[in-house]
Write a structure and sequence with these properties.
The complex is a heterodimer of chains A (272) and B (197). Chain A has 272 residues and is α+β, with helices and mostly antiparallel strands. Chain A has 2 domains: 5-137 and 186-224, BirA Bifunctional Protein, domain 2 (2-Layer Sandwich), CATH 3.30.930; 227-272, SH3 type barrels, CATH 2.30.30.100. Helix content of chain A is 25%, strand content 29%. In chain A, 49% of the residues are buried. With 197 residues, chain B is mostly beta strands. Chain B has 1 helix and 14 strands. In chain B, strand 1 and strand 2 form a beta hairpin. Classes of the chains: A alpha+beta (272), B mainly beta (197). Strand 6 (106-118) of chain A pairs parallel with strand 11 of chain B.
Chain lengths: 272, 197
């Protein structure tokens, strides 16, 4: 699946850039990665803070699955990121259904997937990933400090907790920042290498998914999904469902026990 | 009333009748027959006039109170069309990406009328939330009266936070948009009715 990687220093949004390519027939697997986004976006065109130090990329996909299953792609993307971050940084990254990666409730990574559908056919899916990689807490905008985190923030905290030498205090320059974590104590893994790891992981999961369906992903996803077991309110358009998230359906939707019924929630915003 | 599917079960959640009583059934295909009596018993206490259930080997339609009368209940059960083709024996490359044992979409909920014949319709290709505009600040993609071209984006359906831009497969003038912005939609639900041009 992995195709060419287009490196950009700055772009408005990697998703927009990748969409323009996809509209012109760019094949599956092309990845657009930028050091900075000037107009990074979240859902419903919300602003996504994306300075240098993060990993901002979008992948063009053309999966041969029915249109009604596109939502599963975002979950696979989030799972790939969570698994890689756990492996390379040793932090407890988990998937928050349906498309975020969080550490202790703070957002580490957001996935913005967009698809173009005609009839029942998927023209393309743009899988956009925004991973807060090496961004210090003081670099985060104030309103995000309680809600967002980064790989560097979390690895430093886990190092302090582990009683290891905390290394030098970060001083704003990426080169001199220490990057704790078992495999990386001598320096941070360059963003391009992190990207490679994520693409490899995604490629493996996506291959399994195309061959065997979403069932193949569920077993990997459920143990890492922090939404399961917690009390949630899911706002889906004008509908609101409150209850305990119990399971993931084989189609990727969330099963919420409301006390009166089990409701399968196909979409929506989850709050704790 | 909504009917939602998960795994081997069809779940029926009815929350829109007096008293907000919520019913739920978990019906495997064998259970459908076993629980039929129970379903009818419960439906008798509600306003629900029509119920369609489709599982892997059974298509079930329950209708009652025809044309405003309450003359009992009619039940029709048929073998589903897909029964001859179990999911695990589909042809090469045809992989079922949803629940392995799911029947083709039974997604048309009670109360969703069939499209009228003289109109072209654009239906929801998935379960999700219907949005008429790319973001809350922007104008809708199309309004009633607009002419929609083939390939034109007409709406967004959000499913599991994935924004699906839906393009029209047909050309026509929009005569009706029966779904409100922000409303959940079912698979196969009519989103737009178009007049053929």
């Amino acid at each position: 699946m992995i195709g060419r990687i287009i490196h950009l220093d700055e772009v408005d949004s990697t998703n927009l850039f990748a969409r323009k390519l996809a509209e012109r027939g760019e094949p599956e697997g092309t990845c657009v990665v930028a050091k900075r986004q000037t107009a990074g976006r979240g859902r419903m065109k919300r602003v996504w803070f994306s300075p240098e130090g993060g990993l901002w990329f979008s992948v063009i996909l053309r999966p041969c699955v029915e249109a009604r299953y596109t939502g599963q792609i975002g979950l696979i993307g989030a799972l790939a990121v969570a698994r890689v971050v756990r492996k390379i940084a040793g932090i407890d990254a988990r998937v928050k259904w349906p498309n975020d990666v969080v550490v202790k409730g703070r957002k580490l990574c957001g996935v913005l997937a967009e698809a173009r559908i005609t009839g029942d056919r998927i023209e393309y899916v743009i899988l956009g990933v925004g991973l807060n990689l090496y961004i210090g807490r003081d670099e985060l905008p104030e309103e995000l400090r309680d809600r967002a985190t980064s790989v560097s923030i979390e690895s430093q905290e886990s190092q302090v907790l582990a009683g290891e030498s905390a290394g030098e205090k970060e001083n704003g320059s990426q080169e001199t920042r220490t990057a704790p974590g078992s495999e990386r104590s001598r320096g941070e893994m360059p963003p391009d290498v992190v990207l490679e790891h994520i693409m490899d992981e995604f490629d493996m999961l996506y291959g399994r998914y195309l061959a065997g369906g979403f069932d193949c992903i569920l077993a990997e996803l459920e143990p890492l999904c922090c939404t399961l077991g917690s009390y949630v309110t899911v706002v889906n358009g004008n509908e609101r469902v409150r209850g305990v998230a119990r399971a993931l359906n084989p189609d990727g939707s969330l099963v919420v026990a409301t006390g009166e019924a089990f409701v399968a929630v196909p979409a929506g915003e989850v709050t704790g | 009333m909504n009917i939602r599917r998960h795994k081997t079960k069809t779940m029926l959640v009815a929350e829109d009748f007096p008293g907000r009583e919520v019913l739920s059934f978990y019906m495997g295909l064998k259970d459908v027959r076993r629980e039929l009596k129970e379903i009818i018993r419960v439906l008798e206490g509600t306003d629900v006039s029509e119920l369609d259930i489709e599982t892997e080997d059974l298509k079930l339609t329950i209708k009652r109170g025809f044309a405003g009368t309450h003359d009992g209940m009619q039940v029709r059960a048929l073998p589903a069309a897909n029964q001859a083709l179990p999911p695990d024996r589909t042809g090469a490359g045809a992989v079922e990406h949803g629940p392995k044992d799911a029947a083709p979409p039974a997604g048309v909920g009670v109360g969703v009328e069939a499209p009228q014949k003289d109109y072209l319709v654009i239906t929801a290709p998935m379960v999700g939330t219907f949005y008429r505009a790319p973001s809350p600040e922007e104008p809708p993609y199309v309004e009633v009266g607009d002419v929609v071209e083939q390939g034109q984006t007409v709406c967004i359906i959000e499913a599991m936070k994935l924004m699906n831009e839906i393009q029209s497969e047909v050309r026509g003038r929009v005569v009706e948009i029966p779904v409100e912005n922000g409303e959940p939609v079912e698979y196969g639900q009519v989103l737009f009715r178009l007049e053929r041009l």
